[in-house]
Amino acid sequence: MSANPIQPTIPLDGQGKQHGFLRLPYSRNDSAWGSVMIPITVIANGEGPVALLTGGNHGDEYEGPIALQQLAWEIDPADVTGRIIIVPYMNYPAFRAGARVSPIDQVNLNRAFPGRPDGTVSQKIANYFNDVLVPMADVVLDYHSGGKTLDFLPYAAAHYLDDKRQQAACVEAVKAFGAPYSMMMLEIDSVGMFDTAVESQGKVFVTTELGGGGTASARSAEIAIRGAKNVLRHSGILAGEVEPAEGAQMLDMPGGDCFHFASRDGLLHPLADLGDQVKAGQPIARIWPPDRTGIEPVDLLANRDGVIAARHFPGLVQSGDCLAVIAAFHTGDA
Amino acid sequence: MSANPIQPTIPLDGQGKQHGFLRLPYSRNDSAWGSVMIPITVIANGEGPVALLTGGNHGDEYEGPIALQQLAWEIDPADVTGRIIIVPYMNYPAFRAGARVSPIDQVNLNRAFPGRPDGTVSQKIANYFNDVLVPMADVVLDYHSGGKTLDFLPYAAAHYLDDKRQQAACVEAVKAFGAPYSMMMLEIDSVGMFDTAVESQGKVFVTTELGGGGTASARSAEIAIRGAKNVLRHSGILAGEVEPAEGAQMLDMPGGDCFHFASRDGLLHPLADLGDQVKAGQPIARIWPPDRTGIEPVDLLANRDGVIAARHFPGLVQSGDCLAVIAAFHTGDA
Amino acid sequence: MSANPIQPTIPLDGQGKQHGFLRLPYSRNDSAWGSVMIPITVIANGEGPVALLTGGNHGDEYEGPIALQQLAWEIDPADVTGRIIIVPYMNYPAFRAGARVSPIDQVNLNRAFPGRPDGTVSQKIANYFNDVLVPMADVVLDYHSGGKTLDFLPYAAAHYLDDKRQQAACVEAVKAFGAPYSMMMLEIDSVGMFDTAVESQGKVFVTTELGGGGTASARSAEIAIRGAKNVLRHSGILAGEVEPAEGAQMLDMPGGDCFHFASRDGLLHPLADLGDQVKAGQPIARIWPPDRTGIEPVDLLANRDGVIAARHFPGLVQSGDCLAVIAAFHTGDA
Amino acid sequence: MSANPIQPTIPLDGQGKQHGFLRLPYSRNDSAWGSVMIPITVIANGEGPVALLTGGNHGDEYEGPIALQQLAWEIDPADVTGRIIIVPYMNYPAFRAGARVSPIDQVNLNRAFPGRPDGTVSQKIANYFNDVLVPMADVVLDYHSGGKTLDFLPYAAAHYLDDKRQQAACVEAVKAFGAPYSMMMLEIDSVGMFDTAVESQGKVFVTTELGGGGTASARSAEIAIRGAKNVLRHSGILAGEVEPAEGAQMLDMPGGDCFHFASRDGLLHPLADLGDQVKAGQPIARIWPPDRTGIEPVDLLANRDGVIAARHFPGLVQSGDCLAVIAAFHTGDA
Amino acid sequence: MSANPIQPTIPLDGQGKQHGFLRLPYSRNDSAWGSVMIPITVIANGEGPVALLTGGNHGDEYEGPIALQQLAWEIDPADVTGRIIIVPYMNYPAFRAGARVSPIDQVNLNRAFPGRPDGTVSQKIANYFNDVLVPMADVVLDYHSGGKTLDFLPYAAAHYLDDKRQQAACVEAVKAFGAPYSMMMLEIDSVGMFDTAVESQGKVFVTTELGGGGTASARSAEIAIRGAKNVLRHSGILAGEVEPAEGAQMLDMPGGDCFHFASRDGLLHPLADLGDQVKAGQPIARIWPPDRTGIEPVDLLANRDGVIAARHFPGLVQSGDCLAVIAAFHTGDA
Amino acid sequence: MSANPIQPTIPLDGQGKQHGFLRLPYSRNDSAWGSVMIPITVIANGEGPVALLTGGNHGDEYEGPIALQQLAWEIDPADVTGRIIIVPYMNYPAFRAGARVSPIDQVNLNRAFPGRPDGTVSQKIANYFNDVLVPMADVVLDYHSGGKTLDFLPYAAAHYLDDKRQQAACVEAVKAFGAPYSMMMLEIDSVGMFDTAVESQGKVFVTTELGGGGTASARSAEIAIRGAKNVLRHSGILAGEVEPAEGAQMLDMPGGDCFHFASRDGLLHPLADLGDQVKAGQPIARIWPPDRTGIEPVDLLANRDGVIAARHFPGLVQSGDCLAVIAAFHTGDA
Fold first, then answer.
1. Mean pLDDT of chain E
2. pTM for the full model?
3. How far apart are CA F125 and CA F112, in angstroms?
4. In chain E, which residue's Cα lies nearest the Cα of F72?
5. Best interface-test mutation with F: which of B291, B293, B318, B319 has the largest number of F CBs within 10 A?
6. What is the C-alpha separation between D167 and D165, in angstroms, rounded?
7. What's the CATH number for D259-325?
8. pLDDT value at residue E188
9. Is F256-329 in CATH node 2.40.50.100?
10. DSSP code of residue A4
11. Distance from CA of C81 to the nearest CA of B (A)
12. pLDDT beneath 70, residues of chain B
């Protein structure tokens, strides 16, 4: 198989702080010899652990890009022991389009791992992270939010892993992140995820959901910035103490009945908001017909007790959309 | 000038509750003899004042459509004295597209009044409301929210009018609506607005901004529903007492310096949220470059003291976008 | 007002047979100094009446273009007394796009008369016909069919006109055309139609509906070709006898209850076909939901006795589409 | 290889009649956690053979969807022995778009078999039918028509198969269907077809072509409904006798010279219609230039004697389009 | 009529050098309270004449934007007497799209004058120049090139005007510009042009065509920069001497026979290049069919003697495209 | 693997001159049984070597298509010894779209070799050339130019090959072609190129770059026509002597530092033109900001001494675009 055509314009193993690009040649109608230029910053000081911080895996999720621009600008190499690799806009074409998937190949980057060096643009990006950047790292923090169509309670998350020692290390990093909520997740279908690619290489991995709707707030940006610093401090890469979260809560998404789907198209009338505690059988959303008045609405009832942890964002819904996720309060050990 | 081609499929002057459509013939490639079908409900009981309730003036604002579907379904004609005309999706093509302006003619309905009977689809809709529905009404409530690109503190609003008696009646209706905030507005450029069309016919008019981002929440939907009922009760059309808002605040948008514009394209990093009180000179938002790291961001400073009443919603901004509106607490009489 | 910029590349008043274009300058992104080139043929021999034959008023109706290409190719000037002006593809951009309306300005040419010399491309075309070609003519034959979204029984038609002498001349020409059906029509809304533009100049006018669905058949093409020759013979322009239609029937569209509209979106299940005689109250079409099974369909009942003269063509319908037209057998004098 | 992600929302092995969906998770820009919801009905009563009835393999062919909606609504489980699985809109995204191929991945479902569980949306659908539904069935009826660009004489068809016993069973089912025509077909290129996927699993298979042009008529819908009932009766699944077709004719498409291709772009002038008997050398269609008059047309001559069984539908043709198929009357044993 | 909503962000009557924007509010789906921001630079020093320099009237013509960016950057206010107003990207939305006409309203700005303050975005821009900027100016230089679809010999041009004194002043300014060629033009259809708007206000006006194809070269950029400086020096606004052009030639476009149009679609095979002298009857271009080989090409013959001054640029042509303009050497007095 | 579905409509091994098509069945929404028709001409006379001449590998490069149409029309079989296979529009869908890559599958044909018989349209085309046409040939000439986004000095080129005997034969053919420049190229990434597919089959291969910008000139077309004749004469296929180029120069692209990339988006201001000799460190291009004035431009400096052999064509650039290629004068033996 051919080599990945992506080339960094700065050395990944230099010292100090350098800003550059991952240059991916991309021949197309509007530029026969054009490139995709993915911004990257490397901040290094001496020997030590390596952190890879990524945002923009989905192009319409903004807490990660904001936090990573802030860190790339603000972190002084003198405060670093080891190396921080920052890629705020991982799926750069999607980020520029403000879209979840790449406008070039319609690929969801987070289902494209381990990628292909001779594949589409997104597959090449996935492959470069999988084969070049992740192997360099000890800890990986990948930011997500709900994007334009979902909204989440702000949480950092770890997965249930076969390697319980690795899982414990991930949970510790998640707690260090210090989001208002922490979540334990069992991925039903983890094929192709960046998470899986990182975890299968034995790395400490933190993922997040920090809001959504295709926007960020001052509050969610602040959570994202503090979280990354905390993970870097926890990992011994950045000087300073972890700033613990106050009143953080541990949640669980234990099974398929957490997910609630729309059974018809229409206008979404929410009856419960993010963070609301609900009881099984309680109406949590109503769907009105999009084309007429005077028709009885369809009410969606909670499958289980818990807290609304995610919800459909746009005012219009389509049959089959996930309207809400009800999480449980975590009771066991992670 | 020719007659407006829109025809209602139900009588507008009937008694009881009837659901139907405003049918607008629209010949196009995919239906030579097609129509735009705008849902309408009329609820009438005896003689009395007439209210016109409208949502979907902009197609990506959802509190109005939700509240009006709920009212069209729930209101019992026996509780009515007079007549309620409900049009939840005024710019129906825009509503179905989830877009601010009509996908048919790219027209912003709220700048298309008084419209034209022989104009584009949006101009015909504007003209029908201007010439047929508004003249029937004593009080008009038109719902707005921020849509996909703006977010607002929830408020109902009245305009400063030349006719101070009319203005006072509008302010009373706004207060009856009972949103968490009430706003006095001086429109710089009111040409073409539905507001202007209604006010110039001497009607009592209430407009709102109840959230935004292209979504609604349980809380904002509740405000919208209660507000309409309050206005109907205040007007003597619906039985029952007005439910007053607790702790409602009166705000003002006194001048052009309330509006803050982006001076470059990029990634929006908010530094203050809706409802936050800010001081003149305080940074309220930061813009990071969309294409590289390591560049100093541009900070946007508050022009004046006040409260953040509106903000740009999407995570990406373009030069010239309004990033924030700072309102003042209203001190004088409305 | 400025002069119409369209220029013919052949003389309109020459003798013999000449083929050329109406050249309309059209500056656009892909050709700064480009043109719309509308094919035209003029066949003239000595002095005599002038016929204007037009097809492609709507770009997805094919009997007219076929018949007029055949005539432009086949007619020998020696058989002509007077002049025949043939424009097979009147709305040429729409014809090339296979669409009802122009892809350039989205204008329905048949609602754009009398047009504007400084308007959009379609408005300029309308204006050139209105101001230059129609005034030259004594008789005008404009071909229509149902296009991609309607299908018709094959008929030629005349309008009820205030000038009964003119109406009688039109009816004679319609009968001469010799379609299987002839139709008397009372246009509710004739504003902007080519028909109205022609009739208001006092011309003998024949219009047709000869099929539809965005196709033509050998049979419908044959009707179109023979019809034009018959009208030309009837007018004394083409040598030979009118070939009368056998068993032709006269129909009427007497009122608004002829038209039957869909009241919901879905899959169209026709229960009666073109030419079928139906009784008031009889189900003529059924609409199944497009998104699920197991829901009772909506049946559309005939408003009146008569014959199915037109129907919605595509398998999917939208609320407000005209599903069927039921015509009556004509009983009075035209 | 991973498991197919499609999940039915109803049990496929239940009793009685149930309506639900095949839910296929589909993450995209406008719904991060969205789904494709393919309607399905299962009607079962006791033990017995299983029929799989499918429409909408191509999304612009309507006789199948109409017939299957009608059957899903009308069939009483008490009349059933065994099980009927009904999927009216197999390529649901294509059906909703009114298009032959899926708007999501541009895939022609009928060339996508056996599909991939980790492929595109269409490939996942193909794989689910191939691996889950077809194995359950004894007899499979897949409806086709010409879609928006072809029109066919109404026929049911069987393929020449290596397993002559299987072929004979298929031919019997085709005859039971009772369309006005029956057809024996030798597929030149059967790779990727649903037909091939079904036949290779040893099932009795009936396919059809029942019209086209992107519409259905009352007559063609009736043929489709009666045909499915006949096949179900013939298979012993539905109570009642097969209603034989009157005057049905057996046709053959014996070779490549049945197909007639356009050799230039232009306006199609048909010279023979569906069902017309033609002689070798006879002109069956004419192509006029789309951009000018006065040019000699190109005539397409019949390659062989026979009956016009299929034709190009749209009024415009492109070089390389199949304009007509001439079938022969079947003389040998099937 | 309402006031033009465009507001400059810098004072137009200040001293020294200031860079800012013309801000045009533009509400749209992706920014409800967005703006079009047209860059502007004002360089002023004391009292003196005023020059208005404009580029990007068509958005795909680059010599003007390059020269004006260079001048806005380079000119020292100390070298100025009077005022220079520079707008490099007049039709800013078209410039950003790399297109001749605005992507917002499809309007050709150079046919939109005098514009409308309440019109489309392009009409508002035209109106602001017509009513605000042009009246401030004594001399106006508007850059053009061929754009993506035409290519020109580099020339500056003046029009034949009724006011011969004004014409002479324009011709002097054109000669001062110092392009390799100068051109006298008689506009057949000058309605809506910026040229006409400026000239009708009695200003000295210079227009240019400096290349084309949607690109610029080092040489054409140099001509553009030197030309503007020369005009400013000629006008007494910029210090220094006019740098005369060496060997400049005066050309004329005396009539409609200068223009040569394509009579069919196809592949363009040029037989003469820009600057070549040709004789009447000489083949200057050949058109090959785009869809087949082995067909005799169509040759385009020169209507007259002269020099090829403009040509169609793209390799594909459409019937009606202007393929070439043949200019004559100017012999009389301008 | 299945057989390639492409079928020629003329015999490839016939005698004399025949014009036809490579017919590739392509089922799609607008033609269920449609085809891609790639024009082909075969000119043969007796036994002898076989040349394959191809243009339109990229659809926006015109010198090849022009030259090959000219040759297909002009060459007399009597002047031939052997066989000439001419395909002017290899990626026919891209050629008709005037685009580099195919509008059907977005595939760059010149990175799709060896293709797949069951792949996308472009992959099928690649596979047919790879498996059928190239094996027939002794010498292959494939025309390229810069297309719409690049411009080149006119040169023919050969690659450095492992087989030095083959390389020498290629170089001889390149010199015979007789372009103003000849180039020796070392492809860094030759995977998927037609060049590689041809060379790996041991053929004599000539490629070219003969201009660009999406146009051709009389001069560049002449070079292309003479070049093909020269190669055919050099190969002994066409009668006559090679016409040597006067003053032809041999260039080299020795390494990655020949390529110069844009480091930001903006307006391109070239400071050196094609053919200009430059020194290392010399500014060769400048980028101005696309959204404001008064910002210092970014200058691009030459990495090395040499001649500008290629440049970015459009007036706007994106970060990562190749702005210029500086070639060296070839000094060693090829």
1. 96
2. 0.96
3. 9
4. E294
5. B291
6. 5
7. 2.40.50.100
8. 67
9. yes
10. P
11. 38
12. 1-2, 188, 332-334
Give the whole-angstrom CA distance, residue D313 versus residue C143: 20
Inter-chain touch E35–B147, beta carbons under 8 Å: no
- pLDDT at D202 (0 to 100): 97
| F31-45 and F16-28 beta bridge pairing | antiparallel
E60 and F221 within 8 Å at the Cβ level: the answer is no
Distance CA(B69)–CA(A294), nearest Å, equals 8
Pairing of strands D277-278, D50-54: unpaired
Q: Residue E105's Cα: distance from chain center in Å?
A: 20
pLDDT tens digit sequence for B186-237: 776 778 999 999 999 999 999 999 999 999 999 999 999 999 999 999 999 9
The CATH code of domain B257-329 reads 2.40.50.100
Q: Which long-range contacts (CB under 8 A, 24 or more apart) does E298-301 make?
A: E298/E263, E298/E264, E298/E266, E299/E271, E300/E260, E300/E262, E300/E263, E300/E324
Q: How far apart are CA C13 and CA C47, in angstroms?
A: 11
- Residue E331 makes CB contacts below 8 A (sequence gap 6+) with E252
E291 in contact with D, Cβ within 8 Å: yes
E144 has a pLDDT exceeding 70: yes
Interface residue D149 vs chain C (CB under 8 A): no
Report the 10 Å Cβ neighbour count for F328: 17
Per CATH, the number for F7-252 is 3.40.630.10
Does the beta-carbon distance from D5 to A189 stay under 8 Å?
Answer: yes
CA dihedral of E295, E297, E298, E299, whole degrees rounded to 10: -160
Q: Test A33 with F150 for CB contact under 8 angstroms.
A: yes
**How close is the nearest chain E Cα to the Cα of F38, in Å?**
8
Q: What is the pLDDT along chain C (334 residues), one digit of tens a residue?
A: 568 999 999 999 999 999 999 999 999 999 999 999 999 999 999 999 999 999 999 999 999 999 999 999 999 999 999 999 999 999 999 999 999 999 999 999 999 999 999 999 999 999 999 999 999 999 999 999 999 999 999 999 999 999 999 999 999 999 999 999 999 987 767 789 999 999 999 999 999 999 999 999 999 999 999 999 999 999 999 999 999 888 889 999 878 899 999 999 999 999 999 999 999 999 999 999 999 999 999 999 999 999 999 999 999 999 999 999 999 987 765 4
Q: Which of residues 152-211 of C touch D (CB under 8 A)?
A: none
Q: Does D144 touch chain F (CB under 8 A)?
A: no
The CB-side HSE value for F276 (13 A sphere, CA atoms) comes to 19
**Integer angstrom CA distances of residue F301 from B11, E65, F323:** 76, 22, 11
Domains of chain F, residue spans: 7-252, 256-329
> Does residue C264 sit at the A interface (CB-CB below 8 Å)?
yes
Q: Which CATH class is domain E254-329?
A: mainly beta
Question: What crossing angle do the helices spanning B218-234 and B164-177 adopt, rounded to 10°?
Answer: 130
Instruction: Compute the half-sphere exposure of residue D272: CA atoms within 13 Å on the CB side of its CA.
Output: 27
Structure tokens at A254: 């234990």
Strand pairing report for D16-28 and F283-288: unpaired
Cβ-based contacts of E312 with chain C (< 8 Å)? 31, 33
